[in-house]
Amino acid sequence: MKTHFQIPVGAKFGWLRVTGKPMLTKVGRTHPRLRYKYPCVCERCDGISFVLFDHLVYGKVFSCGCWGGGRKGGEVRFTGVSEARSSGSLEVISWQEMRKRCLTKSHPKFRLYGARGITICDEWLGMDGFIQFRNDMGPRPPGTTLGRIDNGGPYCKSNCRWETPVQQANNTRWNRVVNISGVVDTVAGHARRLGVKYEPLRKRIDRRMSMARMIELGLVK
Fold first, then answer.
1. Residue 195 region, left (φ>0) first, then alpha (ψ -120 to 50), else beta?
2. Residues 60 and 54 sit within 8 Å (Cβ to Cβ)
């Protein structure tokens, strides 16, 4: 059986809060197979239920069944998502991709996010998660994507912003950040600021050449 990514105890999905480790259960009548179910408590009515992993992370179930919202088994839609999709909202695309990167193990980028322990704040995970996300982040400007200020930190209001491709490129965990004359930036950022080529500047920095020496040699004006 493939390695299973576990939802941490205390994680919230709508009114459901995960209270323990998952258990393997046979699911299906015609072709039963083993699936992981999580014990959850419903904060709306204190009811206890066991919910399939994908039903939680894909937003299929938000309660123990005490609130069905017109759908079977307590399965309800994220507030505002359908309307946002219909209107071509850029924010809903960013919100959905953020969830996939952090919660869906089969996603190509999960190893860079969820597997590294990158989490999403509770406010952006629940039934009204998209609405809260949109209120916190505001409209997404054209040509930008969702980025984190601290690449080791979570997705939350205080650590997220809309970033341009240049900001995204500068803010990866592989980038080298250096201090030149009191200015802290990536090597590429310094090259743009000083009006010089990246590779010569990088080589001088590797040799620990001072700014005064670079100016003396005419590398920086």
1. left
2. yes
β partners of residue 33:
27
Mapped onto helix, strand or coil, the DSSP state of residue 21 is coil
* CA angle centred on 12, ends 7 and 13, rounded to 5°: 95
Q: Is the pTM of this model over 0.85?
A: no
Contact 32, 26 (CB under 8 A): yes
Render pLDDT for 70-124 as a digit per residue (tens, 0 to 9): 333 444 455 666 666 666 678 888 998 898 888 877 778 888 888 888 899 988 8
Q: How many helices (H) and strands (E) does the chain have?
A: 8, 9
Strands 12-13 and 48-52, by their bridges, are unpaired
Gap between the terminal Cα atoms of the chain:
61
Asked whether 149 and 162 are in contact (CB, 8 A), the reply is no
Question: Is the separation of the CB atoms in 206 and 187 below 8 Å?
Answer: no
- Pair of tokens at residue 118: 């990158």
